[in-house]
Amino acid sequence: MQSIKPIRNEADYELALQEIDRCLDASSGSPERDRLEVLTVLVDDYEAKHHPISPPEPIAAIEFVLEQRGLSRKDLEGVIGSSGRISEVMNNQRSLTLAMIRKLVEKFDLPADVLIRRTGNTAAQNSTSRVAV
């Protein structure tokens, strides 16, 4: 076993991942388990700095929550609006309004910071007939 060292580059990162794989079946309290815990902290830190995961697009977050809870777009009525409004929002033809975001946060416990992100659709963002957040 090599000594544990900081992860400074992708090669170090790959070696650390390989070592984690070797230690996964280690029994609790063993030196291998301690090694696994230390390597995991180092890998988490390196990934946070060099492989950050962006928050999801707002519509993707809504779709995920609906799927996870076994709900459909119909369950968004009263939160986003009528079925036509829901369709526009979910197809990125209309931006979420502040009122919609507040209701989504309250009803589905979605993080507001995810919902206020801009979507990839500039048509919905540039519309002057609705409030874009």
Summarize the SSE layout with pairings.
Elements: H1 10-23, H2 31-50, H3 58-68, H4 83-90, H5 98-108, H6 112-115, H7 122-126
Helix pairs in contact: 1-2
Give the structure's gist in a few sentences.
With 133 residues, the protein is mainly α. The chain is built from seven helices and no strands.
Descriptive key words:
133 residues; 7 helices; disordered C terminus
Kindly describe this structure.
The chain is mainly α and 133 residues long. Helices cover 55% and strands 0% of the residues. Residues 122-133 have low confidence and may be disordered.
User: Count of helices?
Assistant: 7
How is the biggest beta sheet arranged?
none
Number of DSSP E strands = 0
Question: What sequence of helices (H) and strands (E) makes up the elements?
Answer: HHHHHHH
Strand fraction = under 5%
